Write the structure tokens for this entry.
Amino acid sequence: MADPRPAGHPAGLAVDLLDLTRHYGRVRALDGLTLRIEPGELVALLGPSGCGKTTALRILAGLDQATSGEVQVAGRDITRVPANKRDMGMVFQAYSLFPHLTVADNVAFGLKLRGVDHGRRRSRAHEVLELVGLSEHAHRYAHQLSGGQQQRVALARALAIEPSVLLLDEPLSALDAKVRVQLRDEIRRVQLEVGTTTLFVTHDQEEALAVADRVGVMKGGRLEQLAAPAELYANPATPFVAEFVGLSNRLAAEVRDGQVHVLGASLPLLPGSISTGSGTAMVRPEALGLSPDADGTATVTAVAFLGPFSRVHCALPDGTAVSAQMSSSAAREFSAGDRVRIDVERSGVLVVPQ
Amino acid sequence: MVPFGLFFLVPLLAMLDFSTRKIGGGGRTWQAWRNLVQDDQLYHAITISLGLAASTVAVMLALLVPTMIWVRLRTPWAGRLIEFLCLLPLTIPALVIVVGLKGVYAWVTYFLGESALTLAFIYVVLVLPYAYRAIDAALSAIDVNTLSEAARSLGAGWATTILRVVVPNIWSGILSAAFISIAIVLGEYTIASLSGYQNLQVVIVLLGKSDGPTSVAASLATLLFGMVLLLLLSLVSRGRRAADTDVTTGVVAPAPTTVAERS
């Protein structure tokens, strides 16, 4: 893939989180987290509430201290360096613009602290505001901006200091759906333009898959899997990843001869599966195809219209619920009570013990 | 509204009438008002009270503002304790405070002399509950933790964070605390009288026994000064509220064209 960064623009720095642990009393927020972010890469940490993703980001920012472990940027140990000396830009989940300053002054705040002269501060503020499309709002105050605009200014403010690492702590979670998608794409565009190494924390799988070079799925303070979005989706390493990232049907399966036999089909096994015997196969809804068949073994129980695609819910003779995803036009031929035959797409399947 | 206004206005007009009436003859005179600056004892008392107000506010702000911000940011577990300590003076009568602090004041006068300005230390305790409430309300109105974390991530140390980010955003609360403290100090009589110092209120009472019009003129002047302060406070708060509600909740500006689109 071609480097999207403008020619001559400095690439980001590598970030290493090495065996980080963080205990809050008896609670282990981080339990031996090790993660490397390559220079200029955008890694998203994804997971449910309390999985430790924000703790990891705050430790990297210097806003929290690890109980043990090490934080390195470009090979340099910064574990004990205070937050204000780390040279990292951060965008917070809550609106964090300074209410008493204009947009331009907010963006120039970090530069002023670095002793940059007035003229250069102004021009740099204008430059980054232009990057996020808000240069015409430079003289407004935070309360005169919408939520999406405030977060874009916060992004501009974080980028103005040309940080070694950009940290995004659920910056879109307070926004409505449409603005969220718009700003999500914009964050990715800006990150590619400036080439800053970025850690993006979110609990929204769609957000993570859409913007990140690699996605790390966390659970209980540990990294379950770190992979490119497509790889993560297609080849989940654990049942948790399979279920957290996208939907999965849990179907009774038999593993023998290196193949998994499920719904009458023989499919290849994904690494991490059981090697033999009975298990539960994690099958994506889009890997299932339905066809009307009066002798079919499954019965349609409901059809959920989701815009461009629909999800058809079926029941197997033993009562197991199965969902198949297809285009809404294809789903139109099914309705509750129809008998259908289920075909399984030939792709790798993760099989876990029952 | 009109009865409410009259309820306050009539006594004030009566005070103005009395303070400008010629005693023993008809007509009007401004002599009582001139005495406010010409009577040495009264003039001295006014300067003492203004000095007390200024030093009380200075000490109170120097103590309370950094403490409350620090507690919010770094030691939230101490919040309840600080609140309890600050509100405690409300429950203790002035007489008890004076008796209780007599021993301490032996040392204060030993080190700082017999100046009436030393009353500022007691007055700081006296104004704590009101100042605490004003500053606490201002701190509660902003997300102190997120703002300070944002400032620190941009390179600000703790002092810079407090002085350049937190304080400007609780300015209305600080002004409220200062104005309320000034009003309390200018109207304080009990502690000064029991401690044997002559502040404005003590001298007004003394004057009332020999020169009624001047005493009433001084009382009215103090009242008007307090009212002007409260008016200023109200204007500052209203200005702040107006700024806060001047929201332009326009739609998100269209995203700029991407590099690819531009090329």
Summary: Chain A touches chain B through 54 residues (CB under 8 Å). Confidence is low (pLDDT under 50) at residues 1-10 of chain A. The longest strand of chain A covers residues 27-37.
